[in-house]
Design brief:
This protein is an alpha/beta fold. Helix 4 links the parallel strand 4 and strand 5. Strands 2-1-3-4-5 form a five-stranded mixed β-sheet, with helices on both faces. The longest helix is centred in the N-terminal third of the chain and has 13 residues. The radius of gyration is 17 Å and the shape is globular. About 25% of the residues lie in helices and about 15% in strands.
């Protein structure tokens, strides 16, 4: 008889997105994304952070400042865009994106243009903001399916000490 209590595909891929988010050095918000093809193969992952070559010890992590360049916002690449860029030209047509936070309008453009046809999101805490409302309008117009994440597990524990 097979083991009971194993995680679903959605839990697995959202778990990969959340684990990927743990690579983010952002002190306030850690977001991860995982792109999966129709055969349930991971094509790419990404997390929010600065572009390659832009030191996270030099660029600002602040959320507020006297000028916009005193904050992280002009510099941080969002998890969704990083996942698309990290795919390095792989065909993303028909793929599904798992992401911790509902995509902003800028990421929505990249998601649509890349050919991703479904977004599974964990949190929609900014749903009433202009960027998120714009995202929803574009996703709707482009026919991108939006799916709030629903899992059977509240937590998944990783154990790095496996008995031999």
């Amino acid at each position: 008889m097979k083991r009971q209590g194993y995680i679903t595909w959605d839990e697995y891929f959202m778990g990969v997105a959340l684990l990927t988010a743990q690579r983010s050095k952002d002190p306030n918000t850690q977001v991860g994304a995982c792109i999966v093809d129709r055969e349930k193969r991971i094509l790419s992952t990404g997390y929010n952070g600065f572009p390659s070559g832009c030191s996270d010890d030099v660029f600002p992590w602040e959320r507020e400042g006297e000028q916009s360049n005193d904050t992280k916002y002009p510099f941080v690449v969002h998890a969704e865009l990083n996942a698309i860029l990290n795919a390095r030209g792989k065909n993303l047509t028909g793929a599904k994106l798992y992401v911790a936070l509902f995509p902003c309008n800028e990421c929505a453009k990249a998601i649509i243009q890349s050919g991703i046809t479904e977004v599974v999101y964990l949190s929609d805490k900014y749903k009433h903001t202009s960027p998120t409302l714009a995202s929803r309008m574009m996703f709707d117009a482009a026919g991108v399916k939006l799916t709030p994440f629903e899992g059977n597990q509240d937590t998944i524990t990783l154990n790095f000490k496996i008995d031999s």
